[in-house]
Specification:
The complex is a heterodimer of chains A (about 200) and B (about 180).
Chain A (H helix, E strand, L loop, with lengths): L16 H18 L2 H16 L3 H10 L3 H14 L3 H23 L3 H12 L9 H32 L9 H21 L5
Chain B lengths: L1 H19 L3 E4 L2 E3 L2 H12 L1 H17 L12 H4 L3 H19 L6 H28 L4 H8 L3 H21 L9
Antiparallel strand pairs in B: 1-2
Helix pairs in contact in B: 1-2, 1-3, 2-3, 2-5, 2-6, 2-8, 3-5, 5-6, 6-7, 6-8
Classes of the chains: A mainly alpha (about 200), B mainly alpha (about 180).
């Protein structure tokens, strides 16, 4: 299981995760509150500079992750041009690009362990409510381990189906797939108990 | 305790794994996936509380930066994108699906699970999703609803599948419907 952190090391990687998250929150809040065309365009320009500063390869990798936004930007622009308010369309698109781009940049340049450490610190006050960091860590590890395991078992199920039927498996493999997850859960719970249980 | 933790984490992994199943791109970039089916199953199998925890764990891990959303997406960018409402709605959807199903009095489990999925996994998800889109794209709710419309047929199929799968699980592994024990 890989994380979304970029393999290309940039100076941003060295900035503490907490500082990056705080800056991201402030910047996003400022762009949203300002809601002005020039602020949004300037923010988008700044974000693009941040993307291209560490080099072309990094920028390409980052911009690739923003591709799903294309459809929304296109629709917003078409809609606002059609209703006679192109400036508003450009403003919303720029703000969207800047906000998502900046957030994506933080994710790309922060290791999962650092992000988890910040989350643990933020969640520490809730420890009394029963959210123990130890359990959360164990839960995270289990999900990270079992997502590829389940995906592989799902692929095997689909293959087994294809070996027997000319049609595509579609929804019929969902029930056995969920059954596999349930059986795995039973095994994991027994294994956890056998190893002394969860405190 | 161990059993709860194991079920919750395995269902979080199930939501993620369902996102890896080959998807149909409606318009490029806007995938129809089985991921909300996983959220529905969280509610119907694990029940309201544990189901919501499983979906919450999923949302938390994606925000932290694991590429668990359909198409390998994830990270903080999801929280700033127009689809944030759909993303945030997952725990509430599982909670609502579970609550409705736990109070289902009828005889057919499939029907109950299906209806619960329609309420939690479709209605609630789209209300949150449309609110998010109209907030971020600054369009009115009916305009945002037009975006959501093409997904409805697929969602209804998912709710039917969730109902049937829940009923067959109740036969195959009666103990697995955690909220009943």
């Amino acid at each position: 299981m890989i994380s979304l952190t970029s393999e290309i090391t940039t100076p941003y990687h060295r900035v503490p995760a907490g500082a990056k998250l705080a800056a991201l929150c402030l910047a996003t809040l400022a762009i949203s509150l300002a809601a002005s065309l020039w602020v949004s365009l300037a923010a988008l320009a700044c974000v693009l500079v941040l993307y291209f500063a560490p080099g072309r390869a990094f920028a390409c990798e980052g911009l690739e992750k923003l591709r799903p936004l294309r459809i929304f930007v296109a629709v917003v622009l078409v809609w606002h041009v059609a209703t006679g308010a192109p400036a508003a369309g450009v403003e919303i698109s720029a703000r969207l690009g800047a906000a998502v781009g900046l957030a994506n940049l933080v994710t790309m340049t922060t290791r999962l362990a650092d992000m988890t450490a910040v989350a643990e610190r933020l969640l520490a006050p809730f420890a009394r409510l029963g959210i123990s960091p130890h359990r959360l860590g164990l839960a995270m590890a289990l999900v990270i381990r079992f997502t590829p395991v389940l995906a592989a078992k799902g692929a095997l199920l689909a293959e087994a189906w294809r070996a027997r039927s000319p049609r595509r498996p579609r929804w019929r493999i969902i029930a056995p797939f969920t059954l596999l997850a349930i059986d795995d859960a039973e095994h994991v719970s027994q294994a956890l108990k056998a190893r002394g249980g969860v405190r | 305790m161990e059993r709860n933790l194991a079920y919750i984490t395995l269902f979080t992994a199930l939501i993620a794994a369902l996102g890896l199943i080959p998807k149909i791109d409606l318009v490029s970039g806007v995938p129809i996936t089985a991921q909300t089916l996983g959220v529905m199953l969280c509610g119907t199998v694990l029940g309201a509380r544990r189901g919501a925890l499983a979906a919450l764990l999923f949302v938390f891990l994606v925000a932290l930066g694991l590429p668990l959303l359909a198409g390998g997406r994830g990270g903080l960018g999801v929280l700033a994108s127009p689809t944030v409402g759909y993303f945030i709605s997952f725990p509430f959807a599982a909670l609502a699906t579970g609550l409705v199903f736990e109070h289902w009095q009828g005889r057919s489990l499939a029907l109950g699970a299906g209806l619960a999925s329609v309420f939690g996994g479709i209605l609630l998800v789209h209300v949150c999703g449309i609110a998010g889109m109209s907030l971020i794209l600054q369009i009115s709710a009916p305009e945002a609803a037009v975006f959501a419309l093409p997904f409805l047929p697929g969602d209804l199929i998912k709710a039917v599948v969730a109902g049937l799968v829940t009923a067959s699980l109740a036969k195959a592994r009666p103990d697995a419907l955690l909220w009943r024990s």
